[in-house]
Design goal:
Number of strands: 14
Oligomer: single chain
Distance between the termini: 18 Å
Radius of gyration: 19 Å
CATH architecture of the largest domain: 3-Layer(aba) Sandwich
Number of helices: 11
Order of helices and strands: EHEEEHEHEHEHHEHHEEHEHEEHE
Shape: globular
Number of domains: 2
Strand order of the largest sheet: 10-9-8-14-11-13-12
Strand content: 25-35%
Helix content: 40-55%
Structural class: alpha/beta
Length: about 300
């Protein structure tokens, strides 16, 4: 069976990886000042960051079912007998609803997977699914691979302000007000597909130090269990802070290296800029870390 992989633009996988594994991406949309754009197509992260800093109205919307159906039909025309479609948590976006609607009309079977995550935590799950599919795994096994790797991942992040999350309805108004009033810099995390406050610190430097500790702890737990780990440091308009954090993680986490240089016996640490959609909700200055244990094997039956 030939299984194709489809995901959405919030996976933030590099274009070279998408091309190498023939992964199709359906873009979400960003609306800036009343004009709609497709993420990764006709708007940049820098443009969204500038709009947010200028207090322009910025919102997001899901892809249409037709966009997914187009992707499924293209995969089928390319020889796929089945499709695994992996997407951003249903608790943060209704994207997956469009995928389910399109799956009902697809010319080949589609298994839609709610990653309960986003960013490279989802991206690594998509990549593992694609690698397993390339070795001839079944539709069910490929979907299970995506679910299990996404579920095993840890995502923690820091935002300069809670205001953008409040505007997008991702965190309550009371929490946002309290954070601003007390100058709190919260450490947030993804817990079963939801954004949850984890800890509160008083300065951005302490917040970044705590992110580092949480990432090292998650990576160490995975390595003790016998897994290699991949780590992505996400940022929005904060490249230097992200690079500094990635460098420290490379020094502190065993068996990881620079993106593209990881061997069979080590994972990687890479810096990945957040895209326009997630950036619209978290705001400039955000730093996030995704720690993703690798599955034991990418070959079916081993």
């Amino acid at each position: 069976m030939s299984v194709a992989i489809v995901t959405d633009s919030t996976a933030y996988l590099p274009g070279s990886v998408l091309d190498a594994h023939s992964i199709q991406v359906v873009p979400l949309h960003v609306i800036v000042g009343g004009t709609e754009f497709s993420e990764g197509v006709d708007i940049t992260t820098a443009e969204v960051a500038a709009a947010l800093r200028a207090f322009k109205p910025v919102s997001t919307s899901r892809p249409s079912p037709q966009s997914f159906l187009d992707a499924y039909e293209k995969a089928a025309a390319g020889g796929a007998d089945g499709i695994v479609s992996v997407h951003i948590s249903a608790d943060m976006s209704s994207t997956i609803e469009s995928a389910h609607l399109a799956a009902q009309q697809s010319p080949v079977p589609v298994t839609v997977v709610d990653s309960r995550s986003l960013g490279m935590a989802m991206g690594y799950a998509v990549l593992s699914a694609a690698e397993l599919a390339e070795h001839g795994a079944s539709l069910e096994d490929v979907a299970a691979q995506a679910r299990s790797r996404a579920e095993a991942s840890t995502v923690v992040f820091y935002v300069d302000t809670l205001e953008h999350l409040r505007r997008g309805g991702r965190i309550g108004s009371a929490s946002a007000f309290l954070g601003s009033a007390l100058a709190i810099k919260p450490i947030l995390g993804l817990v079963d597909g939801h954004i949850r406050p984890l800890e509160k610190v008083r300065t951005s430097s302490r917040a970044l130090a705590r992110l580092e500790e949480l990432a090292v702890s998650a990576a160490s737990d995975a390595e003790k269990a016998g897994s290699l780990v991949d780590i992505a440091v996400h940022h929005l308009d904060s490249q230097s802070r992200a690079e500094d954090l990635a460098g420290r993680l490379r020094e502190r986490v065993d068996r990881v290296g620079t993106a593209g240089e990881a061997g069979a016996d080590q994972g990687e640490v890479q810096v990945v800029e957040l895209g326009a959609v997630v950036g619209a909700h978290v705001g400039p200055g955000t730093i996030a870390v995704a720690v993703s244990p690798r599955p034991a094997s990418s070959r079916p039956g081993t």
